[in-house]
Specification:
The complex is a heterodimer of chains A (117) and B (109). In chain A, the strands form 2 sheets. In chain A, strands 2, 4, 5, 6, 9, 10 and 11 form a 7-stranded mixed β-sheet that branches. Chain A has no helices and 11 strands. Chain A is mainly β. With 109 residues, chain B is mainly β. In chain B, 0% of the residues lie in helices and 50% in strands. Chain B is built from no helices and 12 strands. At the A-B interface, strand 5 and strand 10 of A face strand 6 and strand 11 of B.
Chain lengths: 117, 109
C-alpha cells in the first residue's frame, strides 16, 4: 500500500509569485485535505476535495485554490504569495463520503516546506 | 467555534518517567478525537484515536480516554523512552480536523 506523497519537498519563492504543490493520495482514498502548518503551530485546515469537488474550506483567502484529479491526486495553488505564506503545507488523504468531512482518519504526507522571500 | 487546547510545552522527562499531556476540547456533539505525533524530520502520524465517549485509544504504550464529562482526552504513557521525543498534537474531528498547538516532548537517557 502506497502512502501519501507530496512534491516538491522544499520550495523557495519570492513575494508576489505563484506556486503549485502536488499530492498523491493513499491507495483507495477518495478525499484529500490540505493544511498549513506555521512554525511552532498546529496545522490549519485550508480545504478538502472529494471526487474532484471542493467539500469544505477553512479561513483562507481565495488566492488559495485547489484541484483534485480523477485519480484522486490533488494540487494546491497559491497566487500572489505573501511572506506569511511561508509554512509547511500538508496533504492528508482519507476515505469519507460527501458531508462526512473529517469523520474518518486522515493520513498525512511528509509535507512541502515553502519559503517566501 | 470548536477548539482544542493542550498543555504548552516543552515537556522534558528522563527515560522511564510517567508522561501526561493534557488536552481539552469544545465541540457540539461527540466528535472523534485523535492524538497525532510528529517525529523530527517526519510527517504527522496517527498515534491513537477514540470515536465515542468512554472509549480508550491505545498504541505503542500510549493511552487516552475520551471523557465527555470533562471534555478531555489526556495522553498518558507509563514509561517514556528517548525514541518518544516528538511533537504531540491533540486533534478533534468535525468539519475539518482541528489541531491543538502541539506539545514538544524531549526524553533524555
Amino acid at each position: 500500500e502506497t502512502g501519501v506523497t507530496q512534491s516538491p519537498t522544499h520550495l523557495i519563492k519570492t513575494r508576489g509569485q505563484q506556486v503549485t504543490l502536488r499530492c498523491s493520495s493513499q491507495s483507495g482514498h477518495n478525499t484529500v485535505s490540505w493544511y498549513q502548518q506555521a512554525l511552532g503551530q498546529g496545522p490549519q485546515f485550508i480545504f478538502q476535495y472529494y471526487r474532484e469537488e471542493e467539500n469544505g474550506r477553512g479561513n483562507f483567502p481565495p488566492r488559495f485554490s485547489g484541484l483534485q484529479f480523477p485519480n484522486y491526486s490533488s494540487e494546491l495553488n497559491v497566487n500572489a504569495l505573501e511572506l506569511d505564506d511561508s509554512a509547511l503545507y500538508l496533504c492528508a488523504s482519507s476515505s469519507v463520503g460527501r458531508g462526512g468531512l473529517g469523520t474518518d482518519t486522515q493520513y498525512f504526507g511528509p509535507g512541502t516546506r515553502l519559503t517566501v522571500l | 467555534g470548536d477548539s482544542v487546547t493542550q498543555m504548552e510545552g516543552p515537556v522534558t522527562l528522563s527515560e522511564e518517567a510517567f508522561l501526561t499531556i493534557n488536552c481539552t476540547y469544545t465541540a457540539t456533539g461527540y466528535p472523534s478525537l485523535f492524538w497525532y505525533v510528529q517525529y523530527p524530520g517526519e510527517g504527522l502520524q496517527l498515534l491513537l484515536k477514540a470515536t465515542k465517549a468512554d472509549d480508550k485509544g491505545s498504541n505503542k504504550g500510549f493511552e487516552a480516554t475520551y471523557r465527555k464529562e470533562t471534555t478531555s482526552f489526556h495522553l498518558e504513557k507509563g514509561s517514556v523512552q528517548v525514541s518518544d521525543s516528538a511533537v504531540y498534537f491533540c486533534v478533534k474531528a468535525g468539519t475539518a480536523l482541528i489541531f491543538g498547538k502541539g506539545t514538544t516532548l524531549s526524553v533524555s537517557s
